[in-house]
Amino acid sequence: MVSGTDLPTVLLWGGVGLAVIAAIVALMVWDARRRKSPSVLLDVIAAMARVWVAIVLLGAGLLIIRGFTTAPYDIAAMPISQAWPTSLPCQTSGEASVGAAELCHAATDSARATITGLSGGLRTLLVAGDVLSLLVAGVPGFVIAVLSQRAIAGPAFATRTSRWLLGSAIVVLIAGTLGPLLTDIGAALVAQEVLPAAGTDTAVTAGRTFAIAPPLWPLGVGLGLAALSVIFRQGARLQRETEGLV
Hints:
This protein has about 250 residues and is mainly α. The protein has helices at about 5-35, 40-65, 90-95, 120-155, 160-195, 215-245; strands at about 75-85, 105-115, 205. Strands 2-1-3 form a 3-stranded antiparallel sheet.
């Protein structure tokens, strides 16, 4: 992500980033052709997927290292309770207007925060959630790398590929569910530690509710990968039977 206050500068650095990525892809294509790969496209896709996984693992390692330090910790969404800073029409009149659209009710329920002096338990909880969430982001790259490499090296349908897919499904289901939950729980506990309790007469307080909402997408992705695992296992069986008939 490229951000800044000057749009031309942001666009310039965004273009530089795209140019670097294009150069890396061109280098991968050249290397695949030099090695006379049976499929240049699959070779490049597998290489890019491996880079993807390497970046994720590097990020996870940096998160773990940060967990053992006393550096400030950034929380993307710390639950807070804050009233809207100005009176809204519906709050003063009690009724919504019939004319143009207007803001009826609003509240702030989270804030991006940087916390110092975190206790070891809270830091461990937050790091565990962030690492698990990041590892899930690397699973698609891992799956693509495995499938592409198997298709290049030999039979695409292989029992080993089926096992890798099933393992990836389990990782997505467990890490994809636990990661956000641990992060949310940790952020709520941090809010209760650094902010006044809800209901006190201050501008910003800790969140009033403590909610746990497991994400549903890991279940869907996990089921999809598990289905692919079964499909590849059946494909491997049919492939062996076909080879036996030849």
